[in-house]
Write a structure and sequence with these properties.
Layout (H helix, E strand, L loop, with lengths): L2 H13 L6 H14 L4 H20 L10 H13 L4 H20 L26 H8 L7 H16 L3 H6 L5 E2 L4 E5 L5 E5 L2 H14 L18 H14 L9 H14 L4 H8 L4 H10 L1 H11 L1 H6 L1
Antiparallel strand pairs: 1-2, 2-3
Length: 315
């Protein structure tokens, strides 16, 4: 079916006040998100949530979107809770459904929004576990820097510890995004928002050495596999987790998130301010950066005792 035929059917459906079935509604919504140029990860998250919800509707004999009521959404949330989903995970479903139903209402397919009164679940305060100095050293000793893959992984670890970038950001920035003289990397973050992240001279030296080892490839992405193709998310996640086990690190999950939090903690401890931390890490609001500050308050208090003018006078 070409677009002219598809468009004709859409107009006929609107004129007859006929609402689409769930499958058609999801298809239209996903298309609208792609047109908005949202990231692939965001599109995938929407698709997964709506597929789960669609399955729930099928199980309960609900075919038309106009027949969905708020109690259906409450029951869906309850099934997710019964399956052991955490509050943050369920809230992702709620956000996806909210975007979906808002789209259907704005497009004229629904007169009433069934999710309007649905609230997110209360979430427990997050505990951000980080690596201490000895654990960081032990972790960095694990990659075999003699091999190309080992040295690449070593530089990858250094990058997140030095800049606090997200895993997806570290995997997708390109060689030309590195501004060596200014010591910043252009990062395409969440919502496709660009920001410039500073990096240290030490990291710069290792990044240059990695590029020489990497050589010319068909891909312009900075980190590549042995075939010269972009490094896969799962590959680096598994290798970092393995390094954590080999290093004997216990009590904290060794992951890219943990490395990112470790950067944030050290930034705060070295008297970095919340506003610049927010910009470097790509947060849209001060909420997450303030959370870092709250989580590391004990460490900040120690810093205060160390550098307070009053303490220095009387000690």
């Amino acid at each position: 079916m070409d677009y002219r035929e598809k468009r004709k059917l859409i107009l006929e459906a609107r004129e007859s006040k006929e609402t689409p079935d769930m499958y058609s509604a999801i298809s239209m919504f996903i298309t609208s998100r792609k047109i908005k140029n949202l990231t692939e990860n965001t599109i995938t998250s929407y698709s997964q949530a709506l597929t789960k919800f669609s399955g729930f509707l099928d199980d309960n004999g609900i075919e038309k979107i106009k027949d969905i009521i708020v109690e259906d959404i409450h029951e869906f949330i309850q099934t997710r809770m019964d399956d052991g989903n955490s509050a943050p995970t369920i809230n992702k479903y709620v956000r996806s459904l909210r975007a979906f139903f808002n789209f259907l209402c704005s497009a004229g397919y629904l007169m009433e929004n069934p999710i309007e009164s649905v609230e997110k679940l209360a979430e427990e305060k997050r505990v951000l576990r980080t690596l201490n100095r000895d654990q960081v050293k032990a972790l960095l000793d694990m990659p075999n820097r003699v091999t190309p893959a080992g040295y690449r992984n070593y530089v990858f670890l250094l990058l997140i510890l030095d800049t606090g970038v997200r895993l997806e950001e570290a995997l997708t920035f390109q060689v030309e995004d590195v501004h060596w003289q200014e010591r910043v990397i252009k990062i395409l973050g969440k919502g496709r928002k660009e920001r410039f992240v500073p990096f240290s001279d030490i990291l710069a030296a290792h990044m240059r050495e990695y590029l020489e080892l990497r050589g010319a490839t068909d891909s312009s992405v900075f980190f590549v596999n042995i075939d010269g193709q972009p490094l896969k998310r799962r590959t680096i996640q598994e290798e970092i987790a393995d390094y954590g086990k080999l290093a004997g690190i216990k009590g904290v999950r060794v992951s890219c998130h943990t490395l990112r939090y470790t950067f944030a903690r050290n930034y705060v401890l070295n008297s970095g301010d919340v506003v610049s931390l927010m910009r470097i890490m790509g947060h849209k609001s001060l909420h997450m950066a303030q959370l870092y500050t709250e989580m590391f308050q004990a460490d900040i208090s120690k810093q205060h005792d160390k550098y307070s003018p009053v303490s220095s006078m009387f000690n």
